[in-house]
Amino acid sequence: MVYLTGETMGSSWNVHIAQEVAQVAKERIQSMIEMVLEEVNQQMSPFIPQSEISLFNDNPSTAPIALSPAMYYVVRQALTLCEQTDGVYDITVEPLVNIWGFGAKEVKSHPDDAQVADTLRYVNYRYLSLTEEGLRKEYPQTRIDLCSIAKGYGVDKVAEVLEKEGIHHYLVEIGGELRLSGSRYDQAWRVGVERPQWGGGVYEHMLTFKEVTIGVATSGNYRNYFKDKEKVASHEINTQTGYTKVSEILSVTVLAENCMLADGYATALFLLGEKAIEFAEKQQIAALFIVNDDSHEKGYALRISSAFARFINAK
């Protein structure tokens, strides 16, 4: 097994290659992956002041702003998700992300009601319009955040590097989001789904994949959170209320044709709450839900969509 690793997007990236790779090729692939991920960061990281997304957010113009092909592609997919969920998933969430302490600026306490209400005035994906000329915002104060989909896109870009090098048996992971292809030396790739608990870290449910190319992403409220005294705020924010999301869904794991789609859909389904399973059925999304259920000994239960069930039954 060839193993490559590094740091990106405030997390780590890991690549497992289940085929022979010469040392010189290994070094070249490592370098190419680092270059690709640096490019994604320079395009989509809100934590880099001169990134493409930061420059868009800081630009007060309400005229169309030209985007790089990569940004255009990701924004277009994200806006499709916004429309499909009627704004429950909303990339103009960035100002709310900041006041709740999940953005680039440090926050020591939760926002009060007045601050939330004031921030909400400029949060609505309908204030954006994407055309061939670029991305336009109706108000200078409207800002976008692609963190819910950019990590998955980064995984796909790393997979592209491997495919171009003739590597077809691999697992790519960035911060828990995955793309798998082929097999692990004639064995299935095994992916763990965490038991929901604050901080995460305990894998209890295993998924296996063999001779498929698939993206896998999970969204939940137990890994990324902000604590203010005794109150805990989830990083998933309801853009229609301005407050962090409280849901019976503890986590959602999605399987999709690529990791960008899986990443975006996982976030959208988590935010949809009680409407999530209905949405997954309508959109034919393969999703595994871990939901709060006090009637079970462990305090939670599993729910799966029809598309997820078909995937399991087909193996």
UniProtKB/TrEMBL annotation:
Cofactor binding mode and count: Magnesium. Can also use manganese.
Protein family membership: Belongs to the ApbE family.
Residue ranges the record marks as coiled coil: none
Annotated SUPFAM superfamilies: ApbE-like (SSF143631)
Presence of keyword Flavoprotein: yes
GO molecular function term, any single one: transferase activity
Enzyme class: transferase
EC number annotated for this UniProt entry: 2.7.1.180
Name of the featured protein: FAD:protein FMN transferase
Catalyzed chemical reaction(s): L-threonyl-[protein] + FAD = FMN-L-threonyl-[protein] + AMP + H(+)
Gene3D superfamilies: ApbE-like domains (3.10.520.10)
Organism encoding this protein: Pelistega europaea
Keywords, sorted A to Z: FAD, Flavoprotein, Magnesium, Metal-binding, Transferase
Cofactors: Mg(2+); Mn(2+)
Binding-site residues, Mg(2+): S148, D263, T267
